[in-house]
Amino acid sequence: MGSSLRIVSCFISSIRFVYVKMVQINVWNISGHFRLLLQNRTAKKLAVICMLLTGIYYTFFYKHSTHHDLPYQDLSEKYNCSSIAHMDKIGIKRNKSVCVKFAGGLGNQMFAFCFGYTIARKKNMHLVLTREHILTQYFKLVPYHWKDYDLNAGICGCFPLIKDKGFDCGYDKKLEHLPSDQDLSFLGFFQSWRYWKNYENELRQILQFQDNILHEAKSQFHNILSKHKNYQGLTTIGVHIRRFERYDTDEFGKNNAPKEYIIHAMDYFRNLYKKCLFLIFSIKMKWTKKNIPQTDDIFLVEGNSAPVDLAMLTLTNHTIMTVGTFGWMAGWMTQGKTVYYKHPATPGSEFSKLYSNYSDHFYPGWIPME
């Protein structure tokens, strides 16, 4: 019975949607003869049939189209932006929503999620997250995408956009004081732990890997340990090596961590613990094999997907990151000692201007090295 009522309600909404669209494009005045044509009884019947067929299409077919691959700025053209405004105008109560433009790799997307979740959490709003989003595929996140209103997440494209002020890797305290009585949509990277410092334990509990990913990570991790005799008392250190193209510094000012830094960081842990095992993850394994001495306490992990690599990194005791957000998230989720390269940007470069301050980006207590 409930499903039938929902279909009828959706069908009525679709008819209204079609009618509103016809009004919006002023279809009645397309031709001076069109109004006269509708005075004909047969023409009226045909018009009603066309509207009914269009309503059926929008009810049973159109709403399943996600458009999640469309450019963000074009989404508003694909959705009826007036629909949500109409619901607000007639007094339909709802929690306001937070939309974040997810972009980049897994680390970037996790930063965006943590930022958006915290804004929504503090203001009793909803973070819009679709079932198709990669984070819902990798983590046990509950999607929310306007399903209660028969609208798609693309409605986010209708909201006024709030952009970061250039501090992609920094913190803007003004974003802490936004209204909670209107929908918010964000475009940027917002890569500072300060935004969600009061919710980080909650976020770690929410960002639980899907069972198949965690199972694969644990299976590989234990297989690696089993290859080492007397692995009891072994301290494991996850090493993530990120390389920007082929150059140590690019024109934008992004710096690669040199091999001397990685060796220095590993020696730090060797001096700290008697028995170490370094699990190295990188998509630039050719560079790693050429530049990092392959000693007995090193194991190169290859051939996995990004979420499995990240899950394996979180199973280690400590973290060595080079540059980038993937290694950052590994260190934050692991909660051991984290060593990071202290010169991620060339001073005075365009990239350096994306940091409000290094302390706003790198987590408190992490160890800078060079």
From TrEMBL:
It is found in: Golgi apparatus, Golgi stack membrane. It is an enzyme of class 2 (transferase). One of its GO terms (cellular component) is Golgi cisterna membrane. GO terms for biological process: carbohydrate metabolic process. Its main location: Golgi. Pathway: Protein modification; protein glycosylation. Its EC number is 2.4.1.-. One of its GO terms (molecular function) is galactoside 2-alpha-L-fucosyltransferase activity. It is a single-pass type II membrane protein. Keywords: Glycoprotein, Glycosyltransferase, Golgi apparatus, Signal-anchor, Transferase, Transmembrane. Belongs to the glycosyltransferase 11 family. This is L-Fucosyltransferase.
